[in-house]
Design a protein that fits this description.
The protein is mostly helical. The protein contains 21 helices and no strands. The protein is globular and about 65 Å long.
Length: about 500
């Protein structure tokens, strides 16, 4: 049986049996970009969360999104340099394992799975709330939120089961529609000259470096969640050596500029002196009222509908990413082997998808029985540990990349790669600290609840370390396979492109 290409320090693992692998050559650069941008849900993070950023961060809020984008772009430079050379397809934990060892790698894997599930399952609360609002505003219907959430779970499972190429096509349509409605709003505001003329006060030095902007960095980083999952689609990508880096830089570049532009235009809609008061008084209704005023009532109705499809697109994208993470872990022998098989026809990791769907249904059912608030408890509280976990893992991957570059200097094609990667590691861990200091901006919860939410990711990491040590003693064969899954697509190293040259 053919063996996969190996990276120094990782054992070879057999290819999946014929007909039991992921679908090859299924998506290209923009298909991957659509998947990861959809996971971030631009319309949702703008209409649903950006008013909070304006309320707490002031008119400098657009700078917060630009700052988060710059830090993540620095991270992507080192991350993509490593993935092009190591050719790993197992997500963050594979890269951490290659550089920092199997014990830390398994701990990272468990944190990643828990964090992505927190992000995906929690957002069903937002889907329920936004769909309720849409049904009430557009059709005058009042549907219980658990009914909406369970319907969403079924719809997400169905497209995830059908395969990555089907899901990518749907996400392309939905993402285009949601970004278009935001762009229409922004252009409408600028065409009308805003409330008091167009200003650039948001980018004045005294505004850019105000304490409020630092305080909302957690909100801004949360708006990019999922962009790093481009590497999970390496096995299904056409020309992965080019497609994965291109998709990563397209995703982070588009989101940072687009988010900053939209938030800045909404500030113009109320003027520098009135934007904060409008955000405080209107809250989640701010964007809907803005588009109704500057574009028309039809656009408000369209935004209500499209925000529902935006959340659905986010759910589908995260569902696909989680399934591939679990699939890779199962192939590595860390999770039960039955999860490491794909559908014979659709080539989707359908068993992993079934387990993830069941988990979401159980959590939604418990929240419904306990009378939890779908926005506060299900969305905010369940999402918060996921944000801590993913940003922390990004910092750990940056450190892993530095260690890898020291061992494999041939992976570095530009002398700026190492210092920029080091800067990203420092900045990402600083972001984790700032998120912790300002956690009440995310949760609006008491001190005890916030302490519990902040402790989940570190506790899971420690549990992962202990599990790895136990595996090393009790199941050495399983321990030896941690992080061993490598991409094996038969392609040759691609020539450098402009984006590759950044790394």
């Amino acid at each position: 049986m053919a063996q996969t290409e190996t990276t120094p320090g990782t054992p070879a693992v057999p290819d999946a049996p014929p007909g039991d692998g992921l679908k090859r050559n299924a998506i290209g650069t923009f298909g991957i970009a659509f998947l990861v941008i959809s996971a971030a849900a631009p319309l949702t993070v703008m209409a649903g969360v950006a008013p909070v950023a304006i309320s707490r961060g002031g008119i400098g809020a657009p700078v917060g999104y630009l700052a988060a984008g710059i830090v993540l772009a620095l991270f992507a430079i080192g991350f993509m340099a490593m993935t092009r050379h190591a050719k790993a397809a197992g997500g963050f934990y594979t890269y951490i394992t290659i550089a920092l060892g199997k014990t830390v790698g398994l701990a990272a894997a468990i944190v990643a799975v828990v964090s992505y599930n927190c992000l995906q399952v929690g957002v069903y609360g937002l889907f329920a709330v936004q769909t309720q609002a849409m049904l009430s505003f557009v059709f005058g219907l009042n549907v219980p939120w658990p009914v909406v959430a369970f319907a969403a779970i079924a719809a997400v499972w169905f497209l995830g089961y059908r395969g990555i190429d089907v899901g990518a096509k749907v996400l392309a349509v939905l993402l285009t529609a949601e970004t278009a409605i935001l762009a229409v709003m922004g252009v409408g505001i600028l065409a009308h000259g805003g409330a008091k003329g167009i200003t650039i006060g948001s980018f004045a030095p005294q505004t850019m470096f105000s304490p409020g902007v630092l305080a909302i960095l957690g909100i801004c980083f949360a708006a990019f969640m999922g962009f790093e999952s481009t590497v999970l689609y390496r096995r299904e990508a056409r020309d992965p050596d080019r497609a994965v880096p291109r998709a990563t830089f397209i995703a982070v570049g588009f989101m940072s500029v687009f988010y900053a532009f939209i938030v800045w235009t909404v500030i113009q809609a109320y003027g520098d002196s009135g934007a904060v008061d409008a955000a405080n008084s209107q809250q989640q209704g701010m964007f809907f009222a803005t588009i109704a005023q500057y574009v028309g009532p039809w656009a408000e109705v369209a935004m209500y509908i499209l925000i529902v499809t935006s959340v659905y697109a986010s759910q589908l994208a995260f569902h696909n990413a989680i399934n591939r993470y679990v699939y890779m872990l199962a192939q590595d022998g860390v999770l039960p082997a039955f999860l490491g098989h794909t559908h014979p026809r659709h080539k989707s990791p359908h068993r992993a998808g079934q387990v993830q769907t069941l988990l979401a249904a159980v959590v939604i059912g418990l929240c419904a029985v306990l009378g939890a608030d779908p926005y506060q408890q299900l969305l905010i509280w369940v999402n918060t540990p996921g944000i801590f976990g993913i940003v922390g893992l990004q910092g750990l991957v940056a450190i892993a990349a530095l260690v890898y570059f020291r061992r494999h200097p041939e992976a570095v094609r530009n002398r700026l790669t190492v210092p920029l990667t080091a800067a990203s590691a420092v900045l990402l861990f600083a972001a984790v600290v700032l998120i912790g200091i300002n956690i009440e901006l995310l949760t609006f919860a008491d001190a005890v609840t916030n302490a519990v939410l902040m402790s989940i990711a570190p506790v899971v990491f420690v549990v992962g370390l202990l599990l790895a040590r136990w595996l090393r003693r009790a199941r050495p064969a399983a321990y030896a396979r941690i992080g061993s899954t490598e991409a094996h697509d038969g392609s040759t190293e691609a020539e450098s492109t402009e984006i590759h040259d950044l790394a």
